[in-house]
Amino acid sequence: MQTFPPEEYDEELRNAVEGDLRRAGLHSPGAGTPSSGRSSSSRTARPRPGETDRDFDRRAGESQAASHSTNGSSTDTQNPSISQLPDMSIHTGSRVPASVLNTAGPLAKEDFSQLGFDGNELEDLFGGLILPEDVCVRLAVAPRPPRGLGNAQLVFLYDPFYLETGTQTFILDWVTPQANKDIKDWLKNSDRGGDSPILHTFTFSKKKEQWWYFGGLKWRASRLNVWPTLSDSKSRATILKHLSRRSHGSVTPDEIEAQMMDGKLQELCIEITSTDEVDVMKEVSRRLGRILQPAKANRPTVIRGGQ
After folding, report:
1. Could you read off the pLDDT of 101-114 as tens digits, one per residue?
2. Would you state the pLDDT for residue 39?
3. Domains in the chain: boundaries
């Protein structure tokens, strides 16, 4: 049986975000201040027609240096000290998140019929994940628990962002205000563990072009707010480009950023942690014709605050 493919990092996203995460802290709103998803900064720089990545990097760096010179300082006083930050990294599912201890796969959508779902149910589920032409998080819940597995709930994430802070892993994405509320209410009212339900999680990375089972994970809504910490450089442009590709090009990066700035898109952050439901995980894997295996212990080189 296969293990999760070699853990190559999303180099474009990593290189773009690295400088920003070193320059600024993660701003966490107060307990009574939910994230609005708004950006307080100006429009993000865009590659010019025919411009290479290297030229864009140089131009963005010069623009940022000029901005810092004008402001007199590169320190954002609204964010915590960089020396207080944990290790951080962002990727799009091309590696096993640090909080995932077991995996099974790879899986094709046809394999899920072995869990008792019929063809129409699978078409509806996967069509709803892949076909929409918006940029919102691609999250779907199985129509019912697999037979014989109690109330085990299966969830599917297509092409997500993951934020890792050394000891913690977060699903990071963008949604409409109504979807933000609906997802958080769903987590809070779940019968699978109160406000931190155990959800058997499947993820699809477009970089790997495969579905993988990450086991039973606790999901908990977080107030972490990442976007404001990313300066107007290639990091934002790279994330916006990824979101635009998710929409099959129907929504441009400029349109996406405008929706973030006016509150039509809000940041969604969900912490995921491992659980001890190993017997259920093994049974889910067995029904899918796979063997649950320990995730590889090696992790990416992280971006360490203050270095």
Report:
1. 999 999 998 999 99
2. 35
3. 11-27+77-294
